[in-house]
Amino acid sequence: MKKLINAPERAVEEALAGMARAHGDLLRVHFDPTFVVRADAPQPGKVGIVSGGGSGHEPMHAGFVGAGMLDAACPGAFFTSPTPDQMVAAAKAVDGGAGVLFIVKNYTGDVMNFEIAAEFCAAEGIQVESVIVNDDVAVQNSLYTAGRRGVGTTVLAEKICGAAAEEGQSLAQVAELCRAVNGNGRSMGMALTSCIVPAVGRPTFAIGEAEMEIGVGIHGEPGRERMMLQSADEITDILAATIFDDLPFQRGSQVIAMVNGMGGTPLVELYIVFRRLAELCDARGVIIARNLIGNYITSLEMAGCSITLLDVGDELLRLWDAPVRTAALHW
Amino acid sequence: MKKLINAPERAVEEALAGMARAHGDLLRVHFDPTFVVRADAPQPGKVGIVSGGGSGHEPMHAGFVGAGMLDAACPGAFFTSPTPDQMVAAAKAVDGGAGVLFIVKNYTGDVMNFEIAAEFCAAEGIQVESVIVNDDVAVQNSLYTAGRRGVGTTVLAEKICGAAAEEGQSLAQVAELCRAVNGNGRSMGMALTSCIVPAVGRPTFAIGEAEMEIGVGIHGEPGRERMMLQSADEITDILAATIFDDLPFQRGSQVIAMVNGMGGTPLVELYIVFRRLAELCDARGVIIARNLIGNYITSLEMAGCSITLLDVGDELLRLWDAPVRTAALHW
């Protein structure tokens, strides 16, 4: 295992210490329990938005903490859910009196722990709503999930809900918006290589030199099909067709299109995929109103990509375009 | 070789087509000769800034085209210099009457081709100044270079000179500024793995499962020393010590610190390196005034990182902080 780390068991904590040092203008890192919080939290009267999940998907979620996006992120160990005490501490730190939204990716551990945390918060008088993101069209059930997995749409939901909270929308409104984003977003990914979880020290899955995994999960969970490596255009066709088949993206629909790298994929390759995706959208009369191309929800150093399409109206686009100031998204 | 491409010989062109499609608000891509240019070029009365080099280092340079940074970028084939006709066409497209600055990384092919292009431009009445960036402290001569290689400081020079040009500084001033940035910037990199150039199809260099290459070049050129893999802190110590020894970063100096990923390194690892770098700066009384952590000058999917430190006064910081609107840097 070749990694730029000091010790597997200290890697998450040391990376967070690096983030704290690098982005002191945006965020603070609390340890024990561990969470990353906006430097200016709590914002009185603003809905606090909290997400979290296993580490290894950076920049998600800590890289999205800041004005216009998340108020706090709870990082677990690599590919391991954070614990309820982290979530409760984060909720307390960001509650400005307007309640807290938990954005939860659909993995059994995350869902359970965020549920427990919501109960604790309620007992302490903090109003919490939880929305589960389950946008991955690849498989119905998976290694760590009942139902569909939560993947790329999470990034878009965090940005859009962050903007809504920033402009003073209520907890009920922001939660409803998050459900709408989840309902209109679909994703699918693929992998060329496995990643290696630091504490494990060997690849999560074995894959041949000429194979790829279509529909892979962000923890290297098995997808739809192990097949021989195909061209970038053929791969894009498979991912996009599955997404298009799942939601009636109408002719004339506007979408936000994300081509996301899994961590070890060069940017040139992501642009090659985006180029083909744009051709496919053109052919269907689907309008790419905005795009996001790069590493946003990764799987350590896995090579591969995922595509997310989010059907948006003008209101969601307006919220997408609103200012954001985080380590990983900034405009 | 596992890559998300269609054909090695079309990969650069297809990626540029993807960029054109994704970033039509920022840039245009011209083919034959190939260059990427600001959507609003030429800017009358503004110095045009042109850079370029082999592809495979994305987002550099095309990802830095836009307001406040580069006016044009000339991408060559992977790890291969662009040709003078590309540079001349780019210079013509961006010349707003105030002349053009070529920012050239010190590789033999790039230097020669930018020199020829400058002569062509002069013959056509376009005033050109060229500045060579040679900030890599690892080795004195290298596989493709007489003298030091040009690496990470190039990114910082492009941002700072772009800001100066944007505010109306003259060609002589912007060129002088670029020389000052190069004089005050130092970098060094390391690799855990090789990359694979698409047209070659096999790793650029062989490296053992427990080895690393210290001082590697951005094309996988040999560095200072092949050694056994060490911890992130030990690696950071080696890179930083070599940089500190090369330039008298004084107690009380302000620096812009970049921890750059080579393409295949997860963000957590870069933050672990940054954390240690910050400790080393603290110990020397060197003040990290700004930082940049992520993939900015890469080597395809190589795993590894580089550190750049640029000694800056308040004027360079002001230019660093000025607005920038490109695909890869945006504030």
How do you describe this structure in short?
The first copy, chain A, is α/β, with parallel strands linked by helices and 331 residues long. Chain A contains 8 helices and 12 strands.
Structural class of chain A: alpha/beta
Shape category of chain A: globular
Q: List SSEs of chain A in N-to-C order.
A: HEEEEHEHEHHEEEHEHEEH
CATH architecture of the largest domain in chain A: 3-Layer(aba) Sandwich
N- and C-termini, Cα separation of chain A: 37 Å
Give the helix tally of chain A.
8
Greatest interface (CB-CB under 8 A), with counts per chain: A-B, 55 and 55 residues
Residues in helix, % of chain A: 25-40%
Draw up the topology in text:
The structure is a homodimer of 331-residue chains.
Chain A lengths: L10 H12 L4 E4 L4 E4 L9 E8 L16 E7 L5 H11 L5 E6 L2 H16 L4 E6 L19 H14 L4 H14 E7 L19 E4 L10 E4 L3 H15 L7 E8 L5 H18 L2 E8 L9 E9 L1 H8 L10
Parallel strand pairs in A: 3-4, 3-5, 5-6, 10-11
Antiparallel strand pairs in A: 1-2, 2-4, 7-8, 7-12, 8-9, 10-12
Explain what the structure shows.
The structure is a homodimer of 331-residue chains. Chain A has 331 residues and is an alpha/beta fold. Chain A folds into two domains: 10-183, 3-Layer(aba) Sandwich (Rossmann fold); 185-321, Dihydroxyacetone kinase, domain 2 (Hypothetical Protein Tm841, Chain: A,domain 3, 2-Layer Sandwich), CATH 3.30.1180.20. Helix content of chain A is 33%, strand content 23%. Chain A has eight helices and twelve strands. Chain A has helices at 11-22, 84-94, 108-123, 153-166, 171-184, 232-246, 267-284, 314-321, and strands spanning 27-30, 35-38, 48-55, 72-78, 100-105, 128-133, 185-191, 211-214, 225-228, 254-261, 287-294, 304-312. In chain A, the strands form two sheets. Chain A has a six-stranded mixed β-sheet, with helices on both faces. Chain A has a six-stranded mixed β-sheet with strand order 9-8-7-12-10-11. In chain A, helix 3 links the parallel strand 5 and strand 6 (128-133). In chain A, helix 4 (153-166) packs across helix 8 and helix 6 crosses helix 7. The longest helix of chain A has 18 residues, at 267-284. Chain A is globular, with a radius of gyration of 19 Å. The mean pLDDT of chain A is 97.
